Amino acid sequence: MNSSFLDRLRRDWLTLRQPTTRLQAIGLGMTCVLLSLAGWWFLTLGTVAESRIVGPLTLPSPAETFGQFSNLWNEFALTRNVLVTLRRVSIGFALALAVGIPIGVAAGCFPRIHAFLSPLIMLGRNVPLAAVLPLMIFVFGAGEKNKVMFIFVASVAFVISDAARAIMDVSARYIDTAYTLGASRWQTITKVLLPLAAPTIFSACRQMFGLAFGYIMLAESIKIADEVGGLGYQIQIFQRRGFREHIYLIILVIPIVALVIDQTLAWVQRQLFPHVYGGDGVLRTLVRVVLIPWEHLKSLVFYRKTSGLPLAATEERLK
Amino acid sequence: MSQPSPARPHVVEFRNVVKTYNAGKAEEFTAIRDVSFAVEDLVDKGEFVCVLGPSGCGKSTILRLIAGLEPQHPATSGEVLVLGQPVVGSGSDRGMVFQDYTSFDHRTVLENVTFGLECLHMPRTQRDELGREWIHKMGLNVTTDAHKYPHELSGGMRQRVAIARTLILKPRIILMDEPFGALDPLTRLNMQDLLVKLWKDVQATVFFITHSIEEAVFLGDRVYLMSNSPGTILEELRIEPASSPAHEMQRQPKFLEAVYDIRDKIMKLESKT
């Protein structure tokens, strides 16, 4: 009995890549959270500062920390600040995508463009962010613009190089196939290369968004003139006032916000690319439905126009 | 046998074609040397040409030169003519089916099959109708398979999609680069039968690369035997066309005799070169 229990323990925990059920995985994660909380509680046990293992100036107890939550929520407008921060990252990152993806796709399709841009990409990927931040303030002044542009500058080079890499990784045989089926160069890019690379580009960008969310705190922690708001700015204030509980709460809030965003993006990803992740692809269907009128329009213009004599003959053959 | 009309140019003609990579450098490599052949344009009937040869002998180079695909295209010297005109690039008049599964993974079966028509900007309803017709012709189920993604299909089904996608454009020439090379033997026989049936419908000239002698003898009207690298055509053989299903025909003594005959020929030619 005892040895069989040990055997099972060994099999479950020490077998390489032993599968777990979803329930087990959640259970194990929850256990970790509870153990961490218990450790926290134990380290800060006691009513007087001197009787605690870790003093309240370093680490307030769980009760003290969570007791300040309503204060953080009401007095310090937690939701508003989360939204302010999110808005800044989203705009900056959306700009980086709008600029970076077309450039990256062009670089991935045409090696000469890639060679031409590679010094800039290299510079952008290795630029010291701590040095960029004050520069952004010189260039864009105090206000929202410098924070948004900081996120843009911090991420655009990565977007370009990831998009280019994803396009280059699509096997050349798909290009050959498209060409022998009569696709033009532009059609090969838009109907074959870009859609085949899209899942890779999306998941790279999803990871990068997580990083950008970290960068924004850095940008927000520098206070110039009288601009306010954002989680990073709030941490600065609490630090100056010595509100340790509030800082710990924000440290706990950030991963939760990040998790919600990441899971939302994961859902979008699954629904956009059912050929990679399975499922019914609600968003892909939606995109296609939206594109149908556009396609009809193109058919009207181009099919008529090009079906002169040689194509009319082709059409006849196809029937 | 129908006679070639003198006014019609050859469907495909190679005149002393050579393809050398990195000419003049240390890593110079000649893929094919001095390849010459001509396939006549038969009235209302295409021909099934099989190219047999060892791996790396430049069989694919010949196919890709016809297709006009880089980097094989253009040839280093010599002329590659299709219907009397030099090949300048790729086009849907020369459809190609590859050994690797090249289904567009992000498109459903129907969207894969109608890809070429979409590139012609054919209206959706019209092309979907044609697409369903071809899915049916390929022995796939229109209601259940049309909206599947390629990763949900078996290897044989994927190649059916690849063939349908090419044939729907009614190409004059169909280039097939070991299309059944990765399939299991039974599926392979089924696909051979299907190909023979469809090919009679579309009246195209097929270039079919394989290193299975049985496949070449079963499918081919003529067979080109190629030498080791750098490849050249050693011999041209005429073969009786397929008359019964693959699994029956391929065990007939006459068939086996033809296969052994070619095997002996290859061994003799190999020892000479």
How much of the sequence lies in strands of chain A comes to under 5%
Strand content of chain B: 15-25%
Main sheet of chain B, how many strands, which sense, barrel?
6 strands, mixed
Shape of chain A: globular
Strand order of the largest sheet of chain B: 6-7-8-3-9-10
Helix percent of chain B reads 25-40%
* Stretches with pLDDT under 50, minimum 5 residues of chain B: 1-5
- Alpha-beta content class of chain A: mainly alpha
Runs of chain A with pLDDT <50, length 5+? 305-310
How many strands appear in the DSSP assignment of chain B?
10
Give the overall silhouette of chain B: globular
Explain the overall architecture.
The complex is a heterodimer of chains A (319) and B (273). Chain A contains 15 helices and no strands. With 319 residues, chain A is an all-alpha fold. In chain A, helix 8 runs antiparallel to helix 10 (185-220). Chain A is globular and about 80 Å long. The model of chain A is unreliable at 305-310 (pLDDT under 50). Chain B is of the alpha/beta class and 273 residues long. In chain B, 36% of the residues lie in helices and 22% in strands. A 6-stranded mixed sheet of chain B has the order 6-7-8-3-9-10, sandwiched between helices. A 4-stranded antiparallel sheet of chain B has the order 2-1-4-5, covered by helices on one side. Chain B is globular. Residues 1-5 of chain B have low confidence and may be disordered. Classes of the chains: A mainly alpha (319), B alpha/beta (273). At the A-B interface, helix 9, helix 10, helix 13, helix 14 and helix 15 of A face strand 6 and helix 3 of B.
Keywords:
heterodimer, A: 319 residues, mainly alpha, 15 helices, B: 273 residues, alpha/beta, four-stranded antiparallel β-sheet, 10 strands, disordered N terminus
Task: Summarize the helices and strands and which ones pair or pack.
The complex is a heterodimer of chains A (about 325) and B (about 270).
Chain A: H1 2-14, H2 22-43, H3 62-67, H4 69-74, H5 78-109, H6 111-126, H7 129-140, H8 144-168, H9 172-180, H10 185-220, H11 231-241, H12 244-272, H13 274-277, H14 282-306, H15 309-318
Helix pairs in contact in A: 5-6, 5-8, 5-10, 6-8, 7-8, 8-10, 9-10, 10-12, 11-12
Chain B: E1 12-21, E2 29-39, E3 48-52, H1 59-67, E4 77-82, E5 85-86, E6 94-97, H2 109-113, H3 115-119, H4 124-137, H5 142-145, H6 155-167, E7 173-177, H7 185-202, E8 205-210, H8 213-219, E9 222-226, E10 233-238, H9 246-249, H10 253-272
